[in-house]
Design goal:
The complex is a heterodimer of chains A (382) and B (236). Chain A has 382 residues and is an all-alpha fold. Chain A contains 13 helices and 3 strands. Chain A has helices at 2-47, 51-64, 69-86, 93-117, 123-145, 152-175, 180-202, 209-233, 241-266, 270-293, 301-321, 328-334, 342-349; strands spanning 355-358, 371-374, 380-381. Chain A has a two-stranded antiparallel ribbon with strand order 1-2. The longest helix of chain A is centred in the first third of the chain and has 46 residues, at 2-47. Chain B has 8 helices and 2 strands, in the order H-H-H-H-H-H-H-H-E-E. In chain B, strands 1-2 form a two-stranded antiparallel sheet. Chain B is flat and about 60 Å long. Chain B starts with a helix and ends in a 6-residue tail after the last strand. The chains are: A mainly alpha (382), B mainly alpha (236). Chains A and B meet through helix 1, helix 3, helix 4, helix 5 and helix 10 of A and helix 1, helix 6, helix 8, strand 1 and strand 2 of B.
Chain lengths: 382, 236
């Protein structure tokens, strides 16, 4: 009985007076562990050449854990990344494959288009062009991209420029009612001009994959909203095809150039740009669903107004709900993807503080329950 | 439509919130969804003699969803690379196209028979590439270039068909030529891109580029299960 009482007193005193000392020590150890985790994750990102994500993690270590050894390591690593970013890098395999694919098919089209422009009707020249075109396109584009130092974002925009040039040129020829041959010629010229212009614009500019995706979606949504607007205000008694086509072309250009101007300021990730785009698609589906429920026909102007407006709402909602997607909070505490969920981990680590367990009286003469003081220092799993 | 789209978005967001999926695993789930939908649609057309809409849509939905669920479970055990997924995807497309052409060469005229050939051929392509992928270390870029080789081969063969067409060529022979061109293009593509470094070689090259990327041999992980540490790390 007296021993039991002494145990209780010692345990209580230990708990009360040492807790604050241990807490401080454990807290600093925990901070060092967290800093190490984030630092090591940043290093992995650097190995995978995801420099933007690595820099965000290193910045966090520097700002939140400056007192740990990893604060200084993170500062040094940032300098190393800056050196690496300054070095020229050859084009990635996937970007090169994309450019080569577009170059090969477009060169083949240039050959076929030339024969159409020359009004050749025999099949043999077309056959020869189909044999020579892709091979020369492949060799040419492989040669052009061999020493290229384009980034993924730059390569994406050059491909977009080529495709956009073809669409704009064909659209312009159709608006001018130019006929078959001039339209073919316009598509050839449009592709060349678009690729060359895009190549000129992206030269020496830091364009991330997210920027390229944002610009691409800007063009697509600009075109769609312009179509909705033109359909909404069209005069149903006349032929409006040229008005709608012209609006679509203009709207697309506005969307493309607006996003081109904004993208570098937004510095958005490709994943976030895609999620915002999904928001727009869902909004458009809502518009379509609302039209069906309200029995509004496509001939009605309200149909297109609703489609366009709800699509815009979807894009806005997508941008709003993903506003913290590229921030530290998203990377480290909410998503739990990749790195650990530190928020949860911290709760678990709090269990490292001394805990006191009171056991019920089982038998015997004792009237005082057994008390156990437990101090888990660290749990190691293999 | 109004409930389905956001429900799909929310479900997939919640399902992937804490999932540690790699790019290859998510590509596998996406592929299985679209491939399952196509297979479900195709087999529903073949099985349903009345060509009703409901069995078609039902088949596409059930098989597509089954594909997503099956591969979601499968991704707990396997982790394909993006290159693996590239060759599986292209294997499916080439299997479908080549078997459709083979059906034309075999002078099949019935639409259902051709569809059955295409569906089976596509599956053969998927299975072949999936079984090969574990033995091949390939990048997505190389897989795309090999596919481009096949496309170029097919275009070149179509040029030959146009030249020969002057002296008449049967439909079976034309499709045979297209098949041959495509296969030759794929072989040439595979051969000429053999020097493209594998993903592992690229990783090693990046590691060896500089000592900047040296990681400490131990890794300490803090999670809800406790602290996990591996004190020994050996790299070959």
């Amino acid at each position: 009985m007296p021993n039991q009482l002494i145990n209780i007193i010692i345990a209580t005193l230990l708990f009360l007076f040492s807790n604050s000392l241990w807490a401080g020590e454990i807290e600093s150890e925990l901070k060092a562990m967290e800093a190490q985790l984030i630092y090591e994750d940043a290093v992995k990102r650097v190995v995978n050449e995801e420099y933007d994500k690595a820099l965000r993690r290193l910045d966090w270590v520097i700002s939140a854990y400056p007192e740990t050894a990893y604060g200084q390591l993170a500062t040094d690593k940032k300098r190393e990344i800056a050196l690496l970013l300054g070095q020229t890098k050859s084009i990635s395999g996937m970007s090169r494959a994309g450019l080569v694919g577009f170059g090969t098919l477009f060169t083949t089209w240039l050959g076929v288009g030339t024969l159409i422009l020359l009004d050749i009707e025999e099949e043999v020249p077309y056959g020869l062009v189909l044999i020579a075109g892709p091979l020369s396109g492949l060799i040419g584009s492989l040669s052009l991209t061999r020493e290229s130092e384009l980034s993924d974002g730059q390569a994406s925009l050059i491909n977009l420029g080529g495709a956009w040039g073809i669409w704009q040129a064909v659209g312009a020829a159709t608006l001018a009612d130019a006929g078959g041959n001039p339209t073919v010629g316009a598509s050839m010229a449009g592709g060349i001009i678009g690729s060359a212009l895009a190549g000129r614009i992206v030269k020496d500019r830091g364009i991330s994959p997210g920027d390229a995706t944002l610009i691409n979606f800007g063009g697509v949504w600009g075109t769609w909203f312009a179509i909705c607007g033109a359909m909404a205000v069209r005069d149903r008694n006349n032929d409006n095809s040229n008005f709608i086509l012209g609006s679509a072309m203009m709207g697309g250009n506005v969307g493309l150039s607006t996003m081109g101007a904004w993208s570098t300021k937004l510095s958005m990730s490709r994943a976030r740009a895609r999620l915002i785009n999904i928001g727009g698609i869902i909004g458009t589906l809502y518009g379509l669903g609302a039209n069906i429920l309200l029995e509004i026909e496509p001939e009605d102007q309200t149909f297109w107004t609703l489609m366009g407006l709800v699509g815009m709402v979807g894009l806005t909602a997508g941008a709003h709900f993903t506003r913290s997607y590229d921030t530290q909070a998203s990377y480290f505490t909410e998503s739990g993807v990749g790195l650990l969920n530190l928020e949860r981990a911290e709760k678990q680590s709090n269990l490292s503080f001394p805990t006191m367990t009171v056991y019920p009286i089982s038998s015997g003469d004792s009237h005082i329950p057994n008390i156990e003081l437990r101090v888990p220092v660290v749990r190691v799993q293999f | 439509m109004m409930i389905g789209a956001p429900a799909g978005l929310l479900t997939s967001l919640i399902a992937t919130r804490n999932a540690k999926l790699t790019q290859g695993q998510s590509a596998l789930i996406n592929f299985s969804g679209s491939w399952g939908t196509w297979q479900g649609l195709g087999w529903a057309i073949l099985i349903d003699e009345d060509d009703g809409e409901k069995p078609l849509i039902g088949g596409a939905m059930i098989i597509g969803l089954s594909g997503i669920l099956a591969t979601s479970v499968l991704t707990r055990r396997i982790d394909p690379s993006l290159g693996d997924m590239g060759i599986i995807n292209y294997g499916a497309l080439w299997g479908t196209w080549l078997s459709l052409s083979a059906g034309k060469v075999a002078r099949l005229s019935d639409g259902d028979e051709l569809l059955a050939w295409a569906l089976i051929g596509g599956n053969i392509g998927v299975i072949t590439m999936a079984s090969l992928s574990s033995n091949i270390d390939i990048t997505l870029a190389r897989a795309t270039l090999i596919n481009l080789g096949g496309v170029i081969g097919t275009i070149v063969a179509s040029g030959l068909v146009m030249i020969i067409a002057e002296s008449e060529i049967s439909e079976a022979a034309a499709f045979g030529l297209l098949m041959g061109g495509g296969i030759a293009g794929l072989i040439v593509g595979t051969h000429t891109t053999r020097h493209v470094p594998s993903p592992e070689a690229q990783r090693l090259s990046r590691r060896n580029d500089s000592t900047l990327w040296h990681q400490p041999p131990h890794e300490l992980q803090l999670s809800s299960d406790g602290v996990r540490a591996n004190f020994l790390s050996i790299r070959f």
